[in-house]
Design brief:
Layout: H1 27-39, E1 43-45, E2 56-59, H2 74-80, H3 82-90, E3 93-103, E4 113-123, E5 131-132, E6 135-149, E7 153-155, E8 158-170, H4 184-189, E9 194-203, E10 206-209
Antiparallel strand pairs: 1-6, 2-4, 3-4, 5-6, 6-8, 7-8, 8-9, 9-10
Length: about 220
């Protein structure tokens, strides 16, 4: 299986490096900067805001008010973490219930031990091609065209320009259309080109999207 990456060929601009001013406010330079930004801004989704990394774990509350909380089951865990369940059903992650214990942070003597259970989550071989960082990605963005742009202006010693550009969603993965993932808006976005306006900033290496400035 081909590994899914958020990197696609840059917008096709065939020029000679020695004859082009990389700092000029041109469609070619803005196209390069726009695609560099789009390469890092594909369509991805988190498993859970409580899951800090993959592999990782999520503490699941059963009945915090019960004298003796009932044991954690996968059904209960999946009821609380439905996106994790959706990716488990796709075969992208493996899950297991694991007991944990830790002292209460109250400096009691002797220390009081808190016992709890977590849902341990790891990525499977099937899910690895789509995992970028700690998110599952299911589409990339490709530049279509650079539209109008403003003449560069200086703001606080930084030269910038407002640029309109159009992109399309490509490499959309069919599994992202699963209704259990609730990605309806992104599915619709993949059906049409998108036009946005952003600020591009001039650096020593050339133009960059404002969100790439300082990286």
């Amino acid at each position: 299986m081909k590994t899914f990456k958020l990197v696609i060929p840059l917008f096709a601009v065939v020029v000679s490096a020695c004859s082009v001013d990389q700092k000029a406010p041109s469609k070619a330079n803005f196209a390069k900067a726009a695609q560099a930004f789009l390469d890092t801004n594909g369509l991805c989704t988190d498993l859970s805001w409580r899951l800090k990394s993959i592999p990782g774990d999520v503490e699941i509350q059963t009945d915090p008010f019960a004298p003796t909380p009932p044991p954690l089951t996968l059904d209960l865990a999946f009821h609380q973490e439905r996106t994790i369940k959706a990716f488990h059903d796709l075969g992208f992650v493996s899950v297991a219930i694991e007991p944990r214990s830790e002292p209460y942070p109250d400096n009691s003597d002797p220390p009081q031990i808190r016992k709890f259970e977590v849902l341990k989550v790891d990525v499977t071989d099937k899910g690895k091609p789509f995992l970028v960082g700690d998110r599952f990605c299911y589409a990339t963005k490709q530049l279509v065209d650079i539209g109008q742009y403003t003449e560069p202006s200086d703001v606080n010693g930084v030269k910038s320009s407002r640029v309109n550009f159009t992109y399309k969603v490509t490499d959309f993965q069919s599994w992202a259309k699963s209704p259990t993932l609730h990605l309806d808006r992104d599915v619709k976005q993949a059906e049409a080109t998108q036009t946005i306006t952003a600020t591009f900033v001039l650096t020593n290496e050339g133009w960059v999207h404002e969100r790439m400035f300082g990286r």
